[in-house]
Write a structure and sequence with these properties.
The chain is of the alpha/beta class. The protein has a single domain, classed as 3-Layer(aba) Sandwich (Rossmann fold). 43% of the residues lie in helices and 15% in strands. It contains 8 helices and 7 strands; from the N terminus they run E-H-E-H-E-H-E-H-E-H-E-H-H-H-E. The protein has a 7-stranded parallel beta sheet, sandwiched between helices. Helix 4 links the parallel strand 4 and strand 5. Helix 1 crosses helix 8 and helix 4 runs parallel beside helix 5. The longest helix has 28 residues. Belongs to the short-chain dehydrogenases/reductases (SDR) family.
Length: 257
């Protein structure tokens, strides 16, 4: 590691599994002090132990439901107080439900909005006064290529809408945050190998193979580190004049019609 984030304090949501584990590990390895959270107490404890064993400076709080605005505020306030500062807010946490437009229940729609869009808003809103007080910082929101195009192999109405909202929210954060030194950017992953997608990728439906996997120009699905590589750049001073961008990390797949 190169110490690109030395001296920075990063708040990362959803570090208990998937891309969140790699985000916590990598940002610490690059020199940041990290405060993470996860809905799962077990996942939070596991990630904290993993990163500390590797020499990282990290505190992870479990049982945090960011879809509750009060819990989001309480976590952010405690996280900022942990190392007395905030330079990076990495909104990685996300949970969704899928279904066709005429089959997805209202409850599943509301669940997805709460756990993919609302929790980003609540966390940013809670962090905003801290970012202003500490002279600015970098907000990194995780979107999806599902927000940029229709997805052929499975219905993603709520997921696409929520992630589209994350991208739109980010653009407004750019405008409102600029005068305070706050930058905001999005990373939109394509099909990425995580525990949630492991079963699907192990035995992909024929339609998914034909319209997605066989059409990735770089010839492979993404890995968590592919996404986190982009996040490290956006968190670092190397991107100090970048705000409002959406970095698509999908092996080139979304350029194909």
């Amino acid at each position: 590691m190169t110490g690109r984030l030395a001296g920075k304090i990063a708040l990362i949501t959803g570090v208990g599994g998937g891309m969140g584990v790699e985000a916590a590990r990598r940002l610490c390895a690059e020199g940041a002090r990290v405060v993470g959270c996860d809905l799962s107490p077990e996942g939070a404890a596991k990630t904290e132990a993993l990163v500390r064993d590797a020499g990282g400076e990290i505190t992870v709080m479990g049982g945090v439901d960011l879809g509750d605005p009060e819990q989001a505020r309480t976590w952010v306030d405690a996280a900022v107080a942990t190392y007395d500062g905030i330079d990076i807010l990495y909104n990685n946490a996300s949970t969704q439900r899928f279904g066709a437009i005429d089959e997805l229940s209202i409850e599943d729609w509301d669940f997805t909005m709460r756990n993919e869009l609302d929790l980003v808003y609540y966390t940013v809103r809670a962090a905003w006064p801290h970012l202003k007080a500490y002279g600015g910082g970098s907000i990194i929101n995780v979107g999806s290529i599902a927000a940029l195009r229709g997805v052929e192999f499975m219905p993603q109405n709520a997921h696409s809408t929520a992630k589209g909202g994350v991208i739109a929210l980010t653009l407004q954060l750019v405008v409102e945050g600029g005068p305070h030194g706050i930058r905001a950017n999005v990373i939109s992953p394509g099909m990425t190998s995580t525990p949630n997608t492991a079963g699907l990728l192990a035995d992909p439906p024929e339609r998914m193979k034909r319209v997605v996997l066989d059409r990735i120009p770089l010839g492979r699905v993404g890995q968590p580190e592919d996404v986190v590589n982009a996040a490290v750049f956006l968190a670092s001073d190397e991107s100090s004049w970048i705000s409002g961008t959406n970095i698509v990390v999908d092996g080139g797949g979304s350029v194909l019609g």
